[in-house]
Amino acid sequence: MGKPSDLVQGTLDLLILKTLLLEPMHGWAIAKRIQQLSGEVLQVQQGSLYPALHRLEQQGWIKAKWAESETGRQAKFYALTAAGRSQLEKETANWNRLSAAINLVVSEA
Amino acid sequence: MHLVAQIRMALLSHFRRRRASVHLDDEIRDHLERQIAENITAGMSLDEARLVALRQFGNPALIREQTRSTWTGAWLDSLLGDLRYVSRTLIHSAGFTSMTVLIIALGVGANVALFTLVHRVLLNPLPYRDPGQLVSIYEHDASGSNTHGYLPVAAGSFFEWQRASRGVAEMAMVSPFQAYNVSSEGGKLPEKIEAGMCSWNFFSILGVNPTLGRTFGPSDDTPGSEATVILSAAFWHRRYASDPSIIGKKVWLDAKPYTVIGVMPESFVYTGAFGGNTDQVWTPIGHEFPPSLMTTFEDHEVIVVARLLYGTTLQALVSRLAAVQKQIKTAHPGPAVRDSVIGRTMLDDAVQDYKTPLYALLAATGCVLLIASMNVASLLVARLSARRKELAIRVALGGGWVRIMRERILESLLLSTVGGAVGLLLAGAAIQWLVKTREDMNRVEAIHIGAVEIGFAILAIIATALFSGLISAFSSNLKDVLSGLQDSSRTLSSSRARAGLRRTLLVLEVSLTVVLLVGAGLLLKSYQRLRSTDLGVPIDNVLTMHFGLPEARYKTSVQRIAFFENVLSQVRALPGVQSAGLVSAAPGQGYGGDDLVTVVEHPPLPKGTGLDLQNRGADPGYFAAIQIPLVRGRIFTSDERLQRANVVVISQKAADLCFPGEDPIGKRIKVSIDGRVGEVVGVVGDTRWNIAQPAMPMMYWPVLSGDWSNMTLIVRSPSNVSALAMPIQKIIGSLDPDLPVSGVRTIRESIAKSTIDSQFDSLLVLAFAVIALVLAATGLYGVLTYLVTQRTSELGIRIALGARREQLLGTLLLDGLRPALLGMLVGLAASAGAARLIASMLYETKPLDPAVFVAVTALLLIVAASACILPAWRASRLDPMQALRME
Fold first, then answer.
1. CB contact under 8 A, B67 and A51
2. Does the beta-carbon distance from A45 to B26 stay under 8 Å?
3. Domains (ranges, CATH) in chain A?
4. What was the pLDDT predicted at B500?
5. Which residue, among B291, B303, B300, B298, has the nearest Cα to B331 in the 3D structure?
6. Is-contact B278 B149, C-beta < 8 A?
7. How many domains does one find in chain B?
8. Is the pTM for the entire model greater than 0.95?
9. Is B576 in the same domain as B519?
């Protein structure tokens, strides 16, 4: 319960960072974007996004700002920081290595 | 630094927390509203849209919790929350809280106090340079029957040893049991002070430096040199008002001038098995001892202190010296020359007598703390079961189990901390009291609560908290608690299990209590025995005081006799004095010296042996005054003086030893060391020199020989003998204004002083045992009350169905008593083992004294039965209707 069990462990951070690379977004939009970009394959349990967002904020990889949203209401917008950018690069490289390795094993069989 | 930064962050964010929480709520609400709006756009009704949005999102309350837990310092936040919650519930139940705090305070306080003693007295190194290398060396009677293995050394042997240990150890000697009369000067009263006479290198071997002046040099330590003295800081403060110009000034000791050359620091004290911690001045032994005493192998007046040089062990030194001593014995086969050597570290030498009692007391307090934490655990468990429904609701509402466990630990930690803090205060007070009342104890000056003791207190607190907290935390598990919701009082299994745990604790508690009670009983009995021991004379209404005539002023025998007779005649004339006498050492007031003798009429004894008799000087009136019975013959007369004083009175034991199966009257005994011969004229009853030691064979020589100078005046009065102290001191003062009088006390007081150890140990252990008994009794009462409450409806049914109330009472009583009986058996078995460990502290009491064991068993049974009777009786009187209605 509450854990993004349908996501590969630890990849939620990567997805959030990647999503925010384009532009600052609020939580709901991030969830939507991940869903869309993955072709509806990755179903983020929306709630589980928030502990992740707050953790990333605590680590200084993203920063948050309250601003007026497209609906005219106040919403909390998250944006990537410089540290977040380099973290994204690191995690992307990691991911590539890992998925390539898995691919190798899987296609070999 | 990382931790510090984290804590700073945590504190900072703790204060921003409230705003952040509101923001998080807004954020989540915003998210949900967007999703709902989207769902409506997709064609759902409002209710359906909300439901689907929530399903997609997950439990908002949980998400909020999880999110908050990612914030920096969240742990602090929840900890503070728990702390607030726990302290609120504790304050709410003030009775429980104060009871628990009191129990822990007693447990921790007693332990910290005793640990302080053990640490400061037994373990702390002596205040000298590199004290681990310092050892005390004694002579030893390898073939003799002397029970005390560590015997003082003859100065002649010391010099032989010193020569033999060159390159292996440095050696000094000290005679710490000497005394001087300080003359009255500048309006100060004369007084008698204890003193140490030491070889010049004594201080340098210990590695202590004076605060003023210098220590002795080799030239001070010779018969011909100018008389010099070093003062203790205490004596310098007290008598000379810390006069900084004291160095080079003269003080009068035994009516002779001594030049002050140094003052020792406040911290300096020499403590050994033969005393020294009350010494006020030190003088060089080579100047003070007559030359004959410096070369003898037969007169044992000094203690040897050695500093082991690098690479030497105590054992190696002792075996080297033992060989030397053996050679001495071969070359000088006198009966008083000893044939071996024994040694121990200086620390052991100082504290040997206190080791067993202090460790025994520490063990006793350890038991008390263990019992206290068991009681606290038991109370916590009981409280927890009273709160089961509350806990069940919390768990059902999603309260984390870890969180509830943490609360348990936090609760006991809070209780232990408060209790421990109070306990630390108690310990401080106890230590202060102890230092005041036990000035006689070696190293008492070193006792104080320091960092190590506070560290120990913290450890004790944590141990108590973990012990009681974990027991209460594990006493119930999740399923158990959840069943609490369905639970009506009719299901018994879970509560039975919990009571089972408390019962086990009780068994342990009772058995520890039994051990303490048996210990206290044995020590008390031993103390009682000691107090009721017959000293050999009636002890009531006898006053004693000491004085010593200085040689410088009383040069001749005639002068000394004149003074003695003046004192006696004036004191005897005093109204209220029934009788008075003079003796060199009164019964119960110390060893007073011994000598080896032979019987002139008997065939000579094998070389190197003799008959050991305690040596006393007495005036003809002494025996009647102190009321020592005359067994046969007569007491010496006042005419047998000076050259005619060649008569001796011996005690019954001495007669048995020297003249087995024959009449001693008219026979002569000869003192080996000085060749003095006396005709035995009478046999008198035995007296003890120490209340705790068996009487030794004793001989009395006439003080009217004029050879004696240190005297104890004893005065008997029909009533209120203490009132005579002042008039008698005035008489002595009028005869010699420079002569100090010391040790003014009654025989009863001196017995109290020599039994103080026994009294102290037995009363302390008794106090601990009583605390333990009260704790165990409350524990028994609590468990049975709890069980009865749990079984109220069951009992109601039984009564309604016709169970007999007496039978019910019996069953319940047995139920409550079972852990007590089991604990008692375990405890008695454990006591049998523990009692052996304190055997050395017992006087005329066997470790397995049946009376004590029976009394303890009876006492425990009575207390346990009275603790159980009330709840059992109450249960048997239940009104069945009411019991059944009660849910």
1. yes
2. no
3. 11-104 (1.10.10.10)
4. 72
5. B298
6. no
7. 4
8. no
9. no
